[in-house]
Known about the structure:
It is built from 18 helices and 27 strands.
Amino acid sequence: MGFQSVNKLIEKSFKEHWDRAALSNYQGVTLKYCDVAKRIALLHICFRACGLQKGDKVALCSRNQANWGVCFLAATTYGAVPVPLLHEFKAENIHYLVNHSEARVFFVDDTIWEGLSESEMPNVQVVVQMSNLSYLYARDQSFVQAREQLAATFRELYPNGFGKDCLDYYEDSADELALINYTSGTSGFSKGVMIPFRALWTNIRFAKEYAEPQMTCEANMVAMLPSAHMYGMMFEFLFEMTIGAHVHFLTRVPSPKIIMKAFSEIHPDVIIAVPLIIEKVYKSQIKPVADKHKVWLRIPFVDQIVLGKIREGLIQAFGGNFEEVILGGAAFNPEVEQFLRRVKFPFTVGYGMTECAPIITYAHWDRTKKGSCGYAIPGCSIRIDSPDPMRIPGEVQIKGDNVFLGYYNNRQATKAAFTNDHWFKTGDMGVIDSDGYLYLRGRSKCMILGPSGQNIYPEELEAVINNANYVVESLVIEDNGGLTALIYPDFRQGQNDGLEADEVKARITEFLPEINKQLPGYAQIRKIEFLPEDFERTPKRSIKRYLYQR
């Protein structure tokens, strides 16, 4: 099937599902598709009043909420270019990104706005409070007057009432710029990724036809990843809007407790998550049960009964109604993966990047291979830059309709991101098997060169360390020719077990010889350093590695 206009897909979905629930704030307001359409129409009037042109940029910066979805859709269906910004960015970063993107309209949470200043963003014409769509700032008094007369203007425009036949959204084309998404990346400063509509369409089609064909307008989705990040935006929001599904935004920090409560109430049809969430559930809920029954797990037949009960408990904990859990955004801990496979838990690990909007590889949970992140999605090709792609890791390179246009106002970075024959250089290392399944071996930027030229991928060492008791997470760095593990200990678990902080550190240190037994000789951990608080992280929950290099 050839390209279809994404905005026209949205328009069609709105018309077909007019009276169905569209966007909810968890334990709060619910907007039907007709409500969302009306708010979009009102915002379009405001856009015209403040002189917004097709192709102008509209920045959005707030926590996940129903009105975030409204404002994003209002921008794209008008023909403007949404620029979602992660609300965890510091004030000076937000000022910089709003200016860099040349945004003319800025939707923002009032709490974020308190730390910002319009004088720092001279290109912005109007600032709108996300939660109630009131104006926080307008460069021209006429914009305020237009806002005050909005209800009257709306009645004039729609004298016979506002219905589904009034919708006529902007028709986009394949290579046209759809949005700019700033990377939160772990390896340096943000870059504005220019996503074309063909990349959105490729991801939507992938979800609809290959990954989640069972999802219909009856489906429910819990949106817990940041909507400003491509992974959450695409698969917890945008795809759902094209099929008439119901999106429930978790409007606060998604702790495991809140997530599990939402799952038990909403019963989502598919779960999109990052590995850290599953790993936390594994450590807190599954591992203690498995350890308690480890004798039974060694006995044939009996082990299957115990594993079956663990599996059933897990499925119910995740709402009991999902087709599969799709993990992405970071490497998955091998021990956790192995156990979940043993209990036949329906999960899969995909691979994507902001630059591919985001999906690159995927396999349905019953077709996955251990340690792999699936195979290339339709419309996307993968090659490994290696003399022996099946055995020797090389850079993963991508070509296809899902690949971005380049970095906004950054010709140098754009040129560096592509090979001479126009393949996108992901910066990730991997191998590929004869069936096309991709196995990642780490970031090429994170790779440490061993004492005899060996390639050491710290993520693989960290996966071993993270399995040790009382380790929340670790980061392996090169340190004066050796390897040091920075560890954030689980002091709370230690406290529950009656241990002081120093005793927790001592327990972890005692485990170092056991850790090194599991690592190659050239990748031995020489020493451990403990952090008093958690690592600095991106909103995707990846560690900001570049802050800890020496």
